[in-house]
Amino acid sequence: MTFVAFLAPALAASAAALSARALTRTRAELRETSRRYEELARRARALEASRDRYRALVESTQAVPWEMGPDLRFTYVGPQGETLLGFPREAWLEPGFLAERLVPEDARRVLDELARVVETGEPTIVESRLLTRDRRVLCVRHTVNAAGPSDPRRRRLLALAADVTDQKRLETELQQAQRLESVGRLAAGVAHEINTPVQFVSDSIHFVRDAWNDLDALIGRYRALRAAVDRGEARAELAAELVRLEEEVDLDYLVTNVPKAIERSMEGLGRVAAIVRSMKEFAHPDQTAMTRADLNHCITTTLTIARNEYKYVADVETELGELPKVLCRVGEINQVILNMIVNAAHAIGDVVAGTTQKGRISIKTRQEGPNALITIEDTGAGIPDGIRDRIFEPFFTTKPVGKGTGQGLAIARSVVVEKHGGSLSLQSEPGHGTTFLIRLPIDGPSKERARAA
Amino acid sequence: MSGEKLTILFVDDEQALLNGLRDALRRFRRQWVMVFALGPEAALAELDRLQFDAVVSDMRMPGIDGATFLAIVKERQPGAARLVLSGHADPELIARAYTVAHDFLQKPCDPETLSQAILRASRVEGSSAEGSE
Description:
The structure holds 2 protein chains of 2 kinds. Chain A has helices at residues 3-60, 80-85, 89-92, 97-101, 104-120, 165-230, 236-249, 251-282, 295-310, 330-352, 385-388, 408-419, 445-452; strands at residues 64-68, 74-77, 124-131, 137-147, 156-163, 291-293, 314-320, 326-328, 359-368, 371-378, 423-429, 433-441. By secondary structure, chain A is an alpha+beta fold. Chain A folds into 4 domains: 1-58; 64-163, Beta-Lactamase; 176-283; 286-453, Histidine kinase-like ATPase, C-terminal domain (Heat Shock Protein 90, 2-Layer Sandwich). In chain A, the strands form 3 sheets. Chain A has a 5-stranded antiparallel sheet with strand order 2-1-5-4-3, sandwiched between helices. A 5-stranded mixed sheet of chain A has the order 7-9-10-12-11. The longest helix of chain A has 66 residues, at 165-230. Chain B is α/β, with parallel strands linked by helices. Chain B contains 5 helices and 5 strands, in the order βαβαβαβαβα. Chain B has helices at residues 15-24, 40-49, 66-76, 91-98, 111-125, and strands spanning 6-12, 32-38, 54-57, 81-86, 103-106. Chain B has a 5-stranded parallel sheet with strand order 2-1-3-4-5, with helices on both faces. In chain B, β1, α1 (15-24) and β2 form a beta-alpha-beta unit. The chains are: A alpha+beta, B alpha/beta. The A-B interface holds A 188, 191-193, 195-204, 206-207, 210, 250, 253, 257, 260-261, 264, 267-268, 311-313, 355-356, 358 and B 14, 16-17, 19-21, 23-24, 26-27, 29, 41, 60-64, 85, 87-90, 106-111.
């Protein structure tokens, strides 16, 4: 028996034991590995499902999700982007894509605003008009957040871009409808304001015609008298007849009152002309561009056509200070002033109803730094604390059905704050009245916004 | 034509309008005694002073409106014909006017139409008006 032969069984035994142990361990390890693998796979599936769910969610929204780098170049856009603008996703990712799609008037403002978000990391909402591939203009509202490190050079912008074109159109239509409603109501009042002078002008002209007929008869007699004098046969009877005729036509009355009737007619015609001119100015055709306007003149014009709305309940005082011309859309500002005057008249009307008293509406203007300030004060019942926050909400009204749609102040706010970058606030003391303060940036909204930024 | 003159009250809150009426209706000066009151307060004072055959009033005036004023006329001088001469033509106002007025005239209204309406209404209403036309 060799040594080997002697060791072999022991070795074999220990090898067997070893391999058995190894096998056991390997099996355990294998089981463990397989368990881990399955766990990983499960997690991967879960992750995938979660990712798919989020993608489905993000990519199935109406709004378009996008991401861009600090160079304002898109790095991701949801597939909705293709439907929105008609360009494939690859086109979005090209440099300068956004700048090309923005309508020129919006480009500077939108790009500046996005650059500001990159710089400061502050979220924002920015509205833009974008050109589609088939040359339609869409109003798109981007809700933008900054993501990534605090270093602006590595910051990314994440956003949802929503197509608000229809909403904008409806807002415009609603505002138009409110304007037509108030113009319609004004029309009845304006008709009265015109009918009164037309009545007395017409009466005065009738009188002048009657007076002329009387004077014509009288002149006939005067001529006869002169002819008689010429013939050297001036007779006392002729002079006596003249005296009688003068008394009959009441010559003294005519001499005093014909000039007055002519004055009155001219005054009345002037009044009619002023109302017609104001109406034309008030119903300013809608312009898209802002122009410089004299706000004091706007107030005078609006007071002229709204006279019938307030004259039975209130006296109006104006204190119109020196104001530079303000960059605005005049038609919209007139509408705001009208809404304010009508509200003031209604507030006073509720207080003085059934009495012979009248309230007072005071309108003042002055320059206040970069703004024009208009204050409209009434001596109405004031606005209770409880509803003061709600009066600018659309459809909020305390007026009975048929007297107001609840759009007046909501539209005033939209025009002043959103469209002109100004502010609209109020002070009210229940029982004493309300003062509305309108501030409009003299140089228009965009400069104002740049200054604030 | 008898010597009896019609006494007529005109009420408006606008002086120019009253002056216009006074001049335009001057041709009736031999048949009518015309009184012009600026606003309802002044008109109420005239009701205390004179007995009228006809009252012509505006509708919208500060304080008391035309309908309320004519209701007072109806109570205090039931024999007086009541007419409205209004610049407003909304149906609600017209309906209200007709509860107290015999006729509703809309501004602008020429002197011919106005005078005929006054004569018609006072003939219907008052015995005092019968003999004069």
